[in-house]
Write a structure and sequence with these properties.
The chain has 234 residues and is of the alpha/beta class. Helices cover 27% and strands 21% of the residues. The chain is built from seven helices and eleven strands. The chain has a six-stranded parallel sheet with strand order 5-4-1-9-10-11, sandwiched between helices. The protein has a three-stranded antiparallel sheet with strand order 7-6-8. Strands 2-3 form a two-stranded antiparallel sheet. Bound molecules: ligand BV8.
Amino acid sequence: MTLPREATLVILTGAGISAESGLRTFRDANGLWENHRVEDVATPEAFHRNPALVYRFYNERRRSLPGVQPNAAHLALARLEREWAGEVLLVTQNVDDLHDRAGSRNLLHMHGELLKGRCLGCHAVLDWPGDMDSDSRCPACGRGRVRPHIVWFGEVPLEMESIYRTLERCALFAAIGTSGHVYPAAGFVGAVGPETRTVELNLEPSRVADAFREHRAGRATDLVPAFVAELLGS
Ligand code: BV8
């Protein structure tokens, strides 16, 4: 089914799109980090209970970013945004900056960003490329402690309103490199219209594969450039 040229596309990405850049997925770590389940480290309760552990978890991941590069899949999605006549909304669950560095602009980090912090006092969202700890203070208000600008388990993801608004009117919804474990992202495929084309691109079927009409199995750096070329008709 060919898409109208002005159609709105929504692309959802997960850790699998960054895997070939060298960033571990949650499944690779089988959800474990320093013998903690990620769900136990990435929660407000964990931050309250043991802030040093949670700061360390994010410092380690933030430090790994300069050493990795966007891959062909990230670059292909940036090309799609540039060359597609209609809107392309890229919603990522990833907290790395690889889509940003690949050139995607109409990009929503629904689970936050490693390179940002948030003031617990004035709630300012801050660029934060370096390490963060309990002594870190907000440069905006000068006194608040700072937390990672990350949506933890049990917290409300960012930009949900605009995401659902775009899902309702998109002609194509494609999910790339996400296991379908985590909600509400895993439920997005159920929020599109009855005519919307749905495609899952993944190394293996996700938990919600049955909800997609089309499936492409393989690595993101193979599947995504080919999928984008097909959409652009080139
Ligand atoms: C919410 C930031 C309400 C942190 C993340 C009990 C108590 C409390 C909550 C819940 C509960 N039970 C359920 C919930 C809801 C919970 C949830 O879903 N839990 C799960 C564990 C069951 N969700 C929440 O708490 C969310 N908030 O529900 O608020 C609400 C709801 C709706 C509306 C308003 C309010 C908040 C969830 C956000 C948590 N934060 N990230 C951090 O990064 O440290 S989630 C984190 O894990 C990632 O962001 C990502 O979303 C998720 C991992 O998923 P994936 O990205 O899919 O990665 P994964 O490793 O799982 O899979 C990789 C995939 O890639 C695989 O399929 C693999 O095959 C594929 N792959 C690998 N290599 C390649 C590849 N594909 C292609 N090419 C390759 N080379």
